[in-house]
């Protein structure tokens, strides 16, 4: 039995070295990366037992993904498929004004055909938290039903549900996302959402504290966390909003920062921390992730503790 079970697609990430362009790169670095597995890794690094559920092609590339995730210390429970392909994405790192560019190649992937009946529902219902994101239902109409059904199954078994809104404009429009994701809200206990997505997709107005209050009041969430990039995050719980600033960091690779934050937040809540303390450790984990290449937050609990201890003056509640 795992503390947290996550569900979603993990892709292979291919990146040219330094700030090279893909069109003239002679080599590509290969890593596994996906929001749900990133959250599982971060939670595991902070002491929670974690399992990643997915549907993966029975190919060398699919096995590469599963093997890498297992190497990061999380359990994998996958449906092996002889149909569909392994999703990939290409990442160009660059400074401004060019900026970082992500190119998805995830059409007709194995997970796009995944149905709830293919998975071990007992594994979800035996966990303390079931987690997924808004990326998963964006991948196919089948996954919209699957995500809804797995959230319902978790709730039916008494498992808490956590959901990162995680809007991606390269996958669908704001209107499509709003119509689909708000239908999932009744099955969600903990919502994590970027302030920009609350405004752009859901049409809410106000600063992050106001957004957290409005979301918590309008929908039946237990906890709402509104992230605000370099300014940190706010957490709404029991009708009270708690505020935490981001920690300063020298950024090496920002990809996966939000997942590191979410995984750490869930792990600390599972360990009994209150919302302000969980925000504190989540911010520290996110700051460390930005110093690490790749999607995964390969941090230690001691490192996170050190950031919290050394940067306690950054807390505002």
TrEMBL record:
EC number: 2.7.1.178
Domain Carbohydrate kinase PfkB span(s) in chain numbering: 1-296
Xref: CDD domains: KdgK
Alphabetized UniProt keyword annotations: Kinase, Transferase
A Pfam cross-reference name: PfkB
Gene Ontology terms, MF aspect: kinase activity
Domain of life of the organism encoding this protein: Archaea
InterPro entries per the UniProt record, alphabetical: KDG_KDGal_kin_Halo, PfkB_Carbo_kinase, PfkB_dom, Ribokinase-like
Family indicated by similarity: Belongs to the carbohydrate kinase PfkB family.
Listed PANTHER family: CARBOHYDRATE KINASE PFKB DOMAIN-CONTAINING PROTEIN, HEXOKINASE FAMILY MEMBER
Protein name, as recorded: Bifunctional 2-dehydro-3-deoxygluconokinase/2-dehydro-3-deoxygalactonokinase
High-level lineage: Archaea, Methanobacteriati, Methanobacteriota, Stenosarchaea group, Halobacteria
């Amino acid at each position: 039995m795992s503390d947290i079970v996550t569900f979603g697609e993990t892709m292979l990430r291919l990146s040219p070295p330094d700030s090279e362009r893909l069109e003239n790169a002679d080599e590509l670095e290969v890593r596994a990366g996906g929001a749900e597995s990133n959250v599982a890794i971060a939670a595991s690094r902070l002491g929670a037992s974690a399992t990643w559920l997915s549907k993966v092609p029975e190919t060398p590339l699919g096995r590469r993904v599963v093997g890498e995730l297992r190497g990061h210390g999380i359990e994998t429970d996958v449906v092996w498929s002889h149909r569909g392909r392994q999703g990939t994405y290409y990442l160009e790192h660059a400074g401004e004004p060019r900026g970082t560019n992500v190119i998805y190649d995830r059409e007709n992937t194995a997970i796009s055909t995944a149905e709830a009946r293919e998975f071990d529902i007992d594994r979800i219902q035996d966990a303390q938290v079931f987690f997924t994101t808004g990326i998963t239902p964006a991948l196919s109409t089948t996954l919209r039903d699957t995500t809804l059904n797995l959230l319902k199954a978790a709730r039916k078994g008494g498992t808490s549900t956590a959901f990162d809104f995680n809007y991606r404009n390269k996958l669908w429009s704001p209107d499509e996302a709003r119509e689909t994701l708000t239908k999932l809200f009744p099955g969600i206990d903990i919502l994590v959402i970027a302030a920009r997505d609350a405004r752009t997709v859901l049409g809410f107005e106000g600063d992050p504290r106001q957004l957290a209050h409005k979301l918590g009041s309008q929908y039946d969430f237990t906890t709402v966390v509104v992230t605000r990039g370099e300014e940190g995050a706010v957490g709404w719980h029991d009708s009270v909003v708690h505020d935490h600033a981001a920690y300063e960091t020298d950024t090496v690779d920002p990809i996966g920062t939000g997942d590191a934050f979410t995984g750490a937040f869930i792990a600390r809540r599972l360990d009994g921390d209150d919302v302000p303390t969980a925000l504190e450790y989540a911010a520290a984990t996110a700051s460390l992730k930005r110093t690490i290449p790749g999607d995964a937050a390969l941090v230690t609990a001691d490192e996170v503790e050190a950031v919290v201890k050394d940067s306690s003056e950054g807390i505002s509640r």
